[in-house]
Amino acid sequence: MIRRLPHVDRVGIEERAAQLGKRSIKTTAKQQGIRLAVSMLDLTTLEGADTPGKVRHLCAKGVCPAPTMPEIPSVAAICVYPQLVATAKEALHGTGVNVASVATGFPAGQVSLEAKLRDTEDAVAAGADEIDMVISREAFLAGDDTRVQHEIVAVKERCGDAHLKVILETAELGSYDHVRHASMIAMEAGADFIKTSTGKASAGATPGVCLVMLEAIRDYGERTGRIVGFKAAGGVSTSKAALHRLVLVKETLGDEWLTPDRIRIGASSVLNDLLMQYAKTETGRYGRSEDFSKE
Amino acid sequence: MTASAETRTSIVWDYAPAPESADHIRLKDRYGLFVGGEFRDPADGRYEPTINPANEEPIAEVAWAGPGDIAAAVESAREAQPKWAGLRELERAKYLFRIARLIQERARELAVVESMDGGKPLRESRDVDIPLAAAHFFHYAGWADKLHYGVNAREVAPLGVVGQIVPWNFPLLMAAWKLAPALACGNTAILKPAETTPLTALLLAEICQEAELPPGVVTILPGNGETGAALVRSKQINKIAFTGSTAVGRDIQAALAGQDTKLTLELGGKSANIVFEDAALDQAVEGIVNGIFFNQGHVCCAGSRLLIQESVRDEVIAKLWQRMRRLRVGDPLDKNTDVGAINSAEQLERIEVLVAAGESEGATRRTIECELPDRGYWFAPTLFTDVSPAHRIAVEEIFGPVVSVLTFRTQAEAIEKANNSRYGLAAGIWTDKGAKAFEVASALKAGVVWQNTYNHFDPTAAFGGYKESGFGREGGPAGLRPYLQVIR
Description:
By secondary structure, chain A is α/β, with parallel strands linked by helices. Chain A has one domain: TIM Barrel (Alpha-Beta Barrel). Chain A has 11 helices and 8 strands. Chain A has helices at about 10-20, 25-40, 50-65, 85-90, 115-125, 135-140, 145-160, 175-190, 205-225, 240-250, 270-285, and strands at about 40-45, 75-80, 100, 130-135, 165, 195, 230-235, 265. In chain A, β1 (about 40-45), α3 and β2 (about 75-80) form a beta-alpha-beta unit. Helix content of chain B is about 40%, strand content about 20%. In chain B, β18 (about 425-430), α16 and β19 form a beta-alpha-beta unit. Chain B has 2 domains: about 30-265 and about 470-485, 3-Layer(aba) Sandwich (Aldehyde Dehydrogenase, Chain A, domain 1), CATH 3.40.605; about 270-460, 3-Layer(aba) Sandwich (Aldehyde Dehydrogenase, Chain A, domain 2), CATH 3.40.309.
């Protein structure tokens, strides 16, 4: 398989992404945008110190982010390690909030294919609705696209009904050309979503990376008719950043994409900023971080 | 995607109107002529309203200079010139720095007034026009005490009094392009802003007062074409710098023939934007949009002739059309507006005539569907395909949001087609291959060639035309030469 890279101009893509960051989102647009962003959240905890207790708290927060503001919707999913999927599944039973699990040797993916598949099977068996896998950057950077693709196909098979999000870990890919190429490989291999990052690397869902992936999704969709979703994860820690990502979606893919079925934002700390900004649009005053529970 | 999806209510999201407040704008009801450091009434008492092209409402009344006013202005500028030229160069620089800083301080006000008077989106006046105007003053302030290095001479001298006529598409920015180098070189300047957009030049006059610029160094004479023609024909001026249409440029050159008045002209264009098959196509589409819809296409170097390699024609046109339909046309003061109002009824008519000619000559027209305000002058972004090089829309400058698409097969054909124009102001090249970009750039007869970008301006870079796009350069050290004489 000969690798043919697409052309993405770094300066051009970053200028366009920055320009869209200047859209003015005020008053009702801000309120609706924040509600939309909350509904798209994959509220995440991926720490060595995660316990069932912490996960149960996070689930409660995800189902009802702000009891004082009932118009704020539930988040889309709670994202945890495979070990804690069963706990989350139980806590979220009947709420409509999904359980997402990282798998395949997250975050580095430097384990055998057998271990990756086993990891996936465990998470699915424990009840995960969504699987977030990582691609083999090691294979991708060595030019072995076939192995990258083959691994995604194999993991997708083990997912069954669970939806597969493929994490490219764009900060490790080295160029926008590579980001676009990896996006295409993942979509060809059957990804339901493509996702920017693990949140463990030096950079995450930068505006430029998001725009390159959204354009890849658009072009792939036009060619094949298949809709692939997008998840921005890593570094989206403020309301402004979250709304900027939504603007990128709206002006690249269109309004019909602004739904949690197609777009997700993976984050842990952004939720409280969204709530604080929402409260500010209601009261006109900035709140304090203590106004909302951490989890 | 899951059962839970049904329980989620769908949330509709559109940008709410986000108009920039104009409450802080304190415009006077009337602006006089700026002569000898103060505003004064015109001799014949003539004031004309300047209107907002987005709603046809008058904004303020502005004096128009008559022949008597021009004579008085020239005298005041001539009187001030030796003293200005005699200042220590560093002192001249200080005034220019001061003007630059005052433009920055009043940036918000200037941006709002620029958008009200001219119809351009606030996003552009705020992010492009005003910051660049300040940058030009900063740049030439830095040259004031090193002029001879800029032109490779041992001794230089100013020309004297210069007359400068600027167009309505970038009112303040063009005034800055003209005034900054003229003043840095020790000339005094008489600036005539365009008939439809005099206001920011008059605010610049206030800034000159605030900067305590010596009286007579900058003179501002609003008026129409007749005012400009009279200024050109005033025998006491050492140099004319004109930016505007090729027809008027010709008239000016004829008027000055055989007399010792220096001249630079920056005229029209029909610039080629060339997209090769190996380009980053999505970014090329952005560049096409920026090249032709920036400032409603009222840009002399607009990329109005789009040349696409045949192998990617359909793909580029599909992407371009999709992108065009996302353009937000409307209130120039809304911060989310991409395309604002056409500058004047006259210009709108000119665009409509040429677009009608495009249709009747057989090109295929596509115009985006969007709601346009009831009042004001509007033209929705338009794309012409099936254009042949002989069509009027492929040859004549439309100066509106209208792009004509032509195709080519090879690099040689691209160069040939791009150069096949009376004009030669600018060009764009979109390719990922460095060697190709350099080869094509050096074969193009255009004053500015952008690679993988378009309509990028910088005070350090020379700007100007080939052929009927004019002569003389503005910007950077090259922009000093038209305002200096080399003694030795």
